[in-house]
Specification:
The protein is an all-alpha fold. It contains 14 helices and two strands. It folds into two domains: 40 residues; 236 residues, MetI-like fold.
């Protein structure tokens, strides 16, 4: 009898659970809308244009005359870009310089700001607001602001330092092709450092205080504690920062286009894509090939870094538990 009662109770429990997960027609419609609308938006605005652009990179098309006028040319666009397209290699080099500047200068500077502001100094909220202010501005607005700062005649820098070039004229920070890239990088880094500061500041606030206390008890200095305790604890933030830095470096467009439309020493791959697709040339296949190259360059470092991070995590888990996650 007791066995029968237990079996009946178990059967009733299973029935209740089955009833609990049963959705009404209205619930199913709501779930379908909540899942379907984002899928349609992401697929229509991101994935479809991406795959379509990759496919068009193997074609020759001026965007006129319908899809029937598309001509398949294979890898010809890529060969011409690498061999007979003069702006490509300078733009490729400038994008790498942009990435190196953000990764090696602007990002560490943002981390330094976050570490200092995390010490609860007086007026830390004010400093955070000041350094974060450029982030709320678009790169186009920042381009206009720094045009005023770099202006040869009335700019802040030339009026403060009063230095002249070898020819005796005031330095043209944005017109001189030998220095304008670095001048624009300072402007872009000004915004990027504030963004990185907020990310790292949030990560530092989430670190368990007992880790710092343990390091202090062990007699670790500030630099040693940061290198061995604090920075390793920021691994999730580091992954986000690497992804953001790579994306910011390779999608740079607004500030350069505002300055001189990406010419005279400021060539970037994003500018070349725009010039070929919606410019006077109207070479959809050529511009799509440039976009595909930019896509590959942006994905590779992100995938490699994230893969290595998860591999290191799996190795640590394996050492601790004897099995991989």
């Amino acid at each position: 009898m007791a066995i029968d009662i237990a079996a009946d109770r178990q059967t009733d429990g299973v029935r209740r659970r089955r009833r609990a997960v049963r959705l009404s027609v209205r619930d199913r419609i709501a779930v379908a809308v909540m899942v379907g609308v984002p899928l349609v938006v992401v697929g229509g605005l991101i994935w479809f244009p991406t795959f379509a652009s990759v496919a068009l990179s193997f074609t020759s098309w001026d965007g006129i005359g319908g899809l029937g006028t598309i001509k398949w040319v294979g890898t010809e666009n890529y060969q011409q870009i690498a061999e007979i397209y003069p702006p490509f290699w300078p733009a490729f080099r400038h994008n790498l310089i942009w990435l190196g500047f953000l990764a090696l200068i602007a990002t560490p500077f943002g981390l330094l700001l976050a570490y200092q502001l995390d010490k609860r100094i007086r007026g830390t909220r004010v400093y955070q607001s000041i350094f974060f202010l450029p982030v709320v501005l678009s790169l186009a607005i920042i381009g206009f602001i720094w045009q005023l700062v770099y202006s040869p005649d009335q700019g802040l820098i030339n009026n403060v330092i009063g230095r002249t070039s070898q020819s005796g004229h005031l330095i043209d920070w944005l017109g001189d092709s030998s220095i304008n890239l670095w001048a624009v990088l300072v402007a872009a880094g000004w915004r990027h450092a504030g963004y990185i500061m907020i990310l790292y500041l949030a990560g530092l606030k989430s670190i368990d205080p007992s880790l710092r206390e343990a390091a202090a008890i062990d007699g670790a200095g500030e630099w040693h504690a940061f290198r061995t305790v604090i920075f390793p604890a920021l691994r999730p933030i580091n992954i986000v920062v690497v992804v953001i830095t790579v994306i910011e470096a390779l999608r740079a467009f607004d500030i350069v286009y505002i300055v001189n439309r990406g010419r005279n020493g400021l060539e970037l791959l994003s500018i070349l894509v725009t010039d070929n697709i919606i410019g006077e040339a109207s070479r959809i296949g050529y511009g799509s090939a440039l976009g595909a190259i930019l896509l590959v360059i942006s994905i590779v470092p992100i995938v490699v870094f994230v893969w290595n991070s998860f591999e290191e995590k799996n190795v640590r888990v394996f050492r601790f538990t004897g099995r991989r996650t």
